[in-house]
Amino acid sequence: MRGVEKVGDGYRLTIQNKYSTGMTDCHIQTVSIWGRGDFAGIVTTKELALPPLALVRVYGTVVREVDGMPEVKIEYLRYWRWMTFNFSDYGRDAGVSRFDKHLKLDGLRIYSSRVSGKYYAERIEATDEDKAQVKAWWAANVNELRAEFEKVSGEQEKATKSDK
User: Fold this and answer.
1) Nearest-CA neighbor of 156 among 29, 26, 22, 30?
2) Residues 58, 38 contacting (CB under 8 angstroms)
3) How crowded is residue 29: how many other Cβ atoms within 10 Å of its Cβ?
4) Is 0.90 surpassed by the pTM of this model?
5) How are beta strands 10-17 and 37-44 bridged, if at all?
6) CA 69 to CA 12: how far, in whole Å?
7) pLDDT tens digits, the chain, 164 residues: what are they?
8) How far apart are the C-alpha atoms of 109 and 12, rounded to whole Å?
9) Sheet holding 55-66, edge to edge
């Protein structure tokens, strides 16, 4: 997701399409670095608290085209924040995303099961503004993220002990 804008009784998301086979590792969602272009998604909701540059999966109906970009009325939306998804290099780049026009991946290993902020920034060529938004979101949510990590770690530890 490359942008969010409040409109009327909802939000307009700018989404960069990425190919997906549904492949996952045990701990991370994997999508292709390549895709088929950009589209807009309209979601009707009072609040939308998505982290910046999240991976989103949407289902809906194309309702119109605005300036050559399809607009989808979103009926279902799921998201993954940074550190919960990665990229692979399957599929063929259609070369029609405005966000990939100057993408330089030479020398970068696309797939990694151990991701970081730098991993994402390099592979999507995040702007300084993008990086600042992500950094601010993580800073504002650090306590909640730590609590979530501790909860999941505790559940994994309990499951491991019960397997023995």
Assistant:
1) 26
2) no
3) 16
4) no
5) antiparallel
6) 13
7) 999 999 999 999 999 999 998 887 777 899 999 888 899 999 999 999 899 999 999 999 999 998 889 999 999 999 999 999 999 988 887 777 888 777 778 888 899 988 998 999 889 888 899 999 999 999 999 998 888 878 877 766 666 666 66
8) 32
9) 3-7, 10-17, 37-44, 69-80, 55-66
Residue 18: name the closest of 117, 72, 99, 75 by CA. 99
Q: What share of the chain is helix, strand, coil (3-state, %, to 5)?
A: 25, 35, 40
Residue 74, strand partner residues: 60
For residue 106, which amino acid is it?
Answer: D
> Which pair of structure tokens corresponds to residue 57?
């999966």
- Amino acid, single-letter form, for residue 121: A
The neighbouring-strand residues paired with 10 are 7, 44
Return the bridge partners of 4, or none. Answer: 13
- Report how far residue 58's alpha carbon sits from residue 45's, in angstroms, rounded to the nearest whole number: 15
Angstrom distance (rounded) from CA 98 to CA 16: 9
How many residues are recorded in the chain?
Answer: 164
